[in-house]
Design brief:
Blueprint lengths: L1 H20 L1 H9 L1 E8 H7 L12 E8 L7 E6 L8 E5 L19 E5 L2 E5 L3 E6 L3 H9 L1
Antiparallel strand pairs: 1-2, 2-3, 3-7, 4-5, 5-6, 6-7
Amino acid sequence: MNARIALAAPALLLVGALALTGCAAYDSIVHKQATSTFDDLDAFAAGAEADADWIPADATAITVRTSTIDDAPDAVILLTSESTLGEGCVEVDRQSAPAWVLDDAPDPYAAKTVFACGDWAVMDTGDGWFGWTPNSEAERSAAAAG
């Protein structure tokens, strides 16, 4: 009987710790992802784990999900903006999809085209932008070809 308790104790401690720390710890440990929100571009630039030069200057309500695995490039960003994307973004046929989805993000599989912005694929949400990285080599090549 004592052996069963000794084996069960670590599992119960982990469950209890996850319950106390909330979903963020659970996502980080189990799903290997972290989600952060930023009020605007300045806050994003000061604290985000992702580099996304395509984000418009008027961006607000920025949600970012990144991998917690060292050097993993996977990330998604959802934001509100009334601006168009910069000159470095070229509309191409969509050939990639994000590793994760975010609440309120559009279905990337419904998009026929996206904007290739370097390593990012970005689609219009109607009131902003949804982007993911990495995009496909074919999207980057099509953007480079113009």
